[in-house]
Amino acid sequence: MRIIKTLRLLSSFYGGFFPISFIITVCCALIVWHWGLETYFALFWFKLCTLGVIVFAVRSHKSHEFYYYQNLGVSQRLLWTGTLTFDLALFVFLVLQINTFR
């Protein structure tokens, strides 16, 4: 029961910046579709940099929401680790899938 609650809280937190992160991932996948996997290294660093900007923006504009998650037993470290790991895994999966369909 605790795992399901934590996963729901993580998905709620991730939903706040999922649209912009997914748009960046789709743009990177389109670049791989057009120019090939040779661009992957640069796109991976671009994705990491944009995630850094997203983390900075969320931490500065939604800092009050962290108290909500903390009161429900989810630390900031778990929020960021879980959501950023999932986002990077989604990025790698989509880019590699787009490359195989190319």
What structural category characterises the helix and strand content? mainly alpha
**SSE string:** HHHHH
* Helix content range: over 70%
Q: Give the CA-CA distance, first to last residue.
A: 42 Å
Summed over residues and divided by their number, the pLDDT gives a mean of 94
Work out the helix count: 5
Gyration radius, in Å: 15 Å
Poorly predicted residue ranges: none
Largest sheet: none
Shape: elongated
Provide the β-strand percentage band. Answer: under 5%
Count of DSSP strands: 0
Features:
mainly alpha
Plain-language structure description:
The protein is built from 5 helices and no strands. The protein has 102 residues and is an all-alpha fold. The mean pLDDT is 94. The longest helix has 26 residues, at 76-101. The chain has helices spanning 2-14, 18-35, 40-61, 65-71, 76-101.
Short description:
The protein is 84% helix and 0% strand.
Spell out the blueprint of helices and strands.
Layout: H1 2-14, H2 18-35, H3 40-61, H4 65-71, H5 76-101
